[in-house]
Amino acid sequence: MSTIADNIAQVAARIRAAEQAAQRAEHSVRLLAVSKTKPSDAVREAYAAGVHDFGENYLQEALGKQLELTDLPLIWHFIGPIQSNKTRAIAENFAWVHSVDRLKIAQRLSEQRPAELPPLNICIQVNVSGEASKSGCTPADLPALASAISALPRLKLRGLMAIPEPTEDRAAQDAAFATVQKLQASLNLPLDTLSMGMSHDLESAIAMGATWVRIGTALFGARDYGQP
Ligand SMILES: *Cc1c(COP(=O)(O)O)cnc(C)c1O
């Protein structure tokens, strides 16, 4: 049996156990497989084991894999930092963007989303760990950004994304994810998505309302950024 398939089964069991612990419906949490730095063969293996949604951080790498995998009906999510000169390719080649943190980027994505494609699903990345992270809008800037993005014609604002600072303290981890959930609720917009939780903290994120968990290492193993 393949390791990736084993890992998927283990992560699916962790997700189900966390749903149950939080008295949430089965399949209320969806698995986004983060395939950054991993070859298209790993994506193929994960697809064969039942995963359809894949997250990528680096545009050129993602476009290369997409070309190698056009035979599969995959759903691609962009989850990395976005420079404005990358928005057109992102608008043309992804179904979701989880990492929008400023209006200029959202405006470009809306203008550049091809007319024949459905609206691009958007999560606003919010920074709930202050100095610890440079990515994400501040909680103070979130309400104005969310209302401006929800008015853009070719985008569909779905919810928030966050990467709280990792901590071994479960109560502190829960508190950080709870902050994201409260920020989302305070917006009073029809949002259905909370993209939060990674390999090490998915249980905490699911307890606090995550609907997408973004999982890399626990599915594909450690990433090697070192060697070419
Ligand atoms: C790499 C990455 C992940 C996956 O992290 P793991 O700890 O490997 O599960 C999730 N979200 C984002 C934004 C990432 O960059």
Provide a quick synopsis of the model.
With 228 residues, this protein is an alpha/beta fold.
CATH superfamily: Alanine racemase
First-to-last CA distance: 29 Å
* Shape estimate: globular
The average pLDDT score comes to 96
Bound molecules: pyridoxal-5'-phosphate
Question: What is the top-level CATH class?
Answer: Alpha Beta
Total domains: 1
Helix content: 25-40%
Features:
alpha/beta, 228 residues
Task: Tell me what the structure shows.
Strands 7-6-5-4-3-2-1-8 form an 8-stranded parallel beta sheet. It has a single domain (4-215), classed as TIM Barrel (Alpha-Beta Barrel), CATH 3.20.20. It has 9 helices and 8 strands. Helix content is 40%, strand content 17%. It is α/β, with parallel strands linked by helices. The model has no long low-confidence stretch (mean pLDDT 96). The protein is globular. Pyridoxal-5'-phosphate is lined by residues 34, 36, 57, 79, 163, 198-199, 214-218.
Helices and strands, with pairings:
Layout: H1 3-21, E1 30-34, H2 40-48, E2 53-56, H3 59-68, E3 75-78, H4 87-93, E4 96-100, H5 103-112, E5 120-125, H6 142-150, E6 155-161, H7 170-186, E7 193-195, H8 202-207, E8 212-215, H9 217-220
Parallel strand pairs: 1-2, 1-8, 2-3, 3-4, 4-5, 5-6, 6-7
Helix pairs in contact: 4-5
Residues 34, 36, 57, 79, 163, 198-199, 214-218 line the site of pyridoxal-5'-phosphate.
